[in-house]
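Troubleshooting log. The previous structure file for this entry was overwritten by mistake, so regenerating from the original sequence record. Sequence copied from the archived sheet and checked twice against the printout by T.R.
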Amino acid sequence: MARRQPGESPDQRPGALRLTWVQPEDLIGHELRQAAEDGRDASSVEDRWRAAGGHPAPARSGASPRPAEPHLRALAGRLLDELAEQPSPLADDEPTDLPAIKAACPGRPPDVAPVPGPQRASGPLPASDALRPRLEAAWLGRAAGCLLGKPVEKLPLSGIRALARGTGNWPLRGWFTEVGLDPAVAARHPWNAHSRATSLAENIDGMPEDDDLDHPVLGLLLLQRHGHGFRTTDVARLWLDELPAGRTFTAERVAYRNLLDGIEPPHTASFRNPFREWIGALIRADVFGWTRPGDPAGAAEAAWRDATLTHTANGVYGEMFAAAAIAAAAGGGTDVHGCLRAGLAVVPQRSRLARAVRFGIEAARAEPSGSDAGFADVVDRLHHAFGHHHWVHVVPNAALLAAALTHADGSFPGSICRVVSGGWDTDSNGATAGSITGLLAGSPDALPARWTAPLRNRLATTISDLNGIGFDALAARTAELVVTRSAARRPPDTGP
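Regenerated output below.
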């Protein structure tokens, strides 16, 4: 996901501090973009903002170079509130309320009650002992896919392609490296500054900290402490206990700020939060899918309770889609195409996210060669269709994820390389692709050692006391939380 180091400032004045993703003068530009995407007429608000001297949303970073004058900051706050009062004409097709979401998904799998406890095989579901190697492969796959995308996060597509071609790594098939890279190319397309020291082939030594791994760890703690019946408020409390504010970004940072301001879920997701349909919830889906093998509907419902702390509509669907697809992969008995169908079945059919996922799948199927080189044409189609979105928005990223998984036919190396080569939120997409295809691969030994050995079975994290934990240990803890299925219907949702 989009990130800046805590306290890092684009302002060049000595001692200046510009907090990213929370300043009203930066949020208003993103809210204007969100209004355009969901069909609200914000032209008069935009005219007033520009006439007062307001600037557009920062293109790629989380804050503009200079703070706004007090009167301009106050105006931005008022305009954010004014925009929030405008209803979206897409609201009927893109609800956030869970019963309405279910009603908009006629092909949704039936609700079934999970049965926790020591696991025994139930029908086609694997026992936890059998699932544990697959869970380890999923954790490893998530880490490797994330790590592949880290050094090129925030770079435009042209930069990613130039860096890979400059070292003979195009089509992308291995870790990025600057060994042999022309300095002129490196100067035109600088690596992600935060990740360069930890994420290039020549310096990988274990999995460095990343929010794409911190959030699955948090999900694990959530289920350990509150069980599968957790509420959204439990997620909020866990974050306040375990997640440093500086390790949150975009919608998560706004929701965190809202919590500290005394705003309660689900309003934390909507109050002055223009990032509510970005990718942040999707990256939190894995544990809910990993622990509900073969129960996409249950995984999606758990994802909804998690996502509504920070997101609405398509932002929520992103996590539900990923959780259901991962649950299908964890349950076995299907291929990656079945996983994608399971993900789509829990998302409102007429939503922008569902349409984008279908577009990605269709674009991948239409590419005649099926080769890694041919996938570049798929990416070009996706960027033409969705390039007007911010690079962290969930809609283009979900389309790219679905396209990469489809085009690579669920292959682990092919999926993570394709999705990272497609740009946008490279590390988040690589992580989710790696999680799904790691599960499908079936065990750590099924993943090529060139992708897993550099991880050193070690994850860096600031969450709890888990820094340095191994992926085998994470898999063991995850397996203890796996639920089987019962024919009994799940009780009605009890809210946040």
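Residues 128-149 form the longest helix (22 residues). Archived copy saved in two places this time.
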